[in-house]
Amino acid sequence: MFLLDVRYDPKNSRITKWIKDGPDCRPVREVYYPRIYISGKPELLSLIASLPGVKGTCFEEKRTWMGDEPEKVISAAIELNSVYEIASMLEAKGCNLFNIDLDPVRQYLLEYSLFPAAKLKGDVLDDRQYALDYEIPDLVSLELAVVPAREKGIITMDEPIGKITLGEVIIEGRDESEVISELNLEVARADPDLILTGRGDSFELPYLHHRASLHGVELKLGREKDILPEGDGRSYFSYGRILYKPRGYLLAGRLHLDKSSFLFREGGLLGLIDLSRIIGIPMQELSRLSPGSAVTALQVNQALRDGVLVPWKRNLAEYWKTAEELLIADRGALVIEPKIGLHENAFEIDFASLFPNIMVKHNISPETVLCRCCPDSQKRVPFTHYNICQQHIGLIPRVLKPLIERRMVYKKRIADDPSRAPDKEQH
Ligand SMILES: [Zn+2]
């Protein structure tokens, strides 16, 4: 048995675990309240306990900053829909708030030491999160493609459906509502675990849902009612380009993977399973994240496991530097202009994961540089007065080390046997 997916419904505070058991996939549900933490005002415990939406309170020992000693904080289990209202109210009373924006699914997985695609024996985990060799669930996947009736020019949502392809099955016909009902039936009959689309978040799924709604038919691609995204997508700026990111169309009990998403395109299904296991974010959500957000999630997980809380509205200013210090400490990379002309005997030197390796080797992390426990440390940032901790290994090196090692092992296996290289076209 494998844990295929985990979803949270804030309306009834329920976690649904989708368990893949041989050819079947079944939901297992339980009530779960995420936790928030409040520091600074221990006398407010009984007031917080009496607030509507609060399901339980207690004191816990947690660190509010990496490297600090644990302190007594209030822990409150809370209905997700009340989190922001309660947090704002307590903030106005002078409390410091933590773990406010943490997704309940991630909290649940961390709390129960579970992870996506984990192998289970009954209710018990039969797997290790960081295992290099592990069993991959046998997943049935189908490709879904849709062609509007008119293929040329600018296609809008108003164009009726021309043809739908689901795996080997082609669905077409004059009556659009029948075509959609036929698609629902075919999906239910084939019962795939994965539905792959070319660009399902920006085209296939919003288009199909729109066409279905025009006829008052319900499109059902998941094993339960489809989850429609709320709000619009968002535009963001990355490496000099403005990109648009549509909201993800996720399915219940079945995974919708859009093949145009970066992480799926780069790693294929096996890469996504591997990442999803070690990051602890279900595959549908993970495939829609940027690599930077995925790494941040790993750091947050490690901090939470260490008993460190995540501050709400983080606003961490860097320590003040003089102009000279800034010049020395913040040089970035040194790029030397090449001499123009034809060169012989040119060499290329490629450092494997240069920055992560530097951070691991020299223990570089926000709480280890200028740590308070080792002002006379032998380890120092060259040309500056910065000391680096000699007593504790920092959060960042602890997160990066297993990743670098994992990457080296997998790369070596491919070098030893090139046939093991992932074939990105084959899912
Ligand atoms: Zn130290």
List the helices and strands and how they pair.
Layout: E1 2-9, E2 14-21, E3 24-31, E4 35-39, H1 45-49, E5 54-62, E6 71-78, H2 83-92, E7 96-98, H3 104-111, E8 120-121, E9 124-125, E10 141-148, E11 161-166, E12 169-171, H4 176-190, E13 194-197, H5 204-214, E14 234-238, E15 241-245, E16 255-258, H6 262-279, H7 283-287, H8 291-305, H9 323-329, H10 354-361, H11 395-416
Zinc ion (ZN) is lined by residues 371, 373-374, 389-391.
Describe the structure.
- It is a single chain.
- The protein is α+β, with helices and mostly antiparallel strands.
- The protein has 4 domains: 2-29 and 112-125; 35-101, MTH889-like domain (Alpha-Beta Plaits); 141-304, Ribonuclease H-like superfamily/Ribonuclease H (Nucleotidyltransferase, domain 5, 2-Layer Sandwich); 323-420, no CATH class.
- The protein has helices at residues 45-49, 83-92, 104-111, 176-190, 204-214, 262-279, 283-287, 291-305, 323-329, 354-361, 395-416, and strands spanning 2-9, 14-21, 24-31, 35-39, 54-62, 71-78, 96-98, 120-121, 124-125, 141-148, 161-166, 169-171, 194-197, 234-238, 241-245, 255-258.
- The longest helix is centred in the last third of the chain and has 22 residues, at 395-416.
- The mean pLDDT is 89.
- It binds zinc ion.
- Zinc ion is lined by residues 371, 373-374, 389-391.
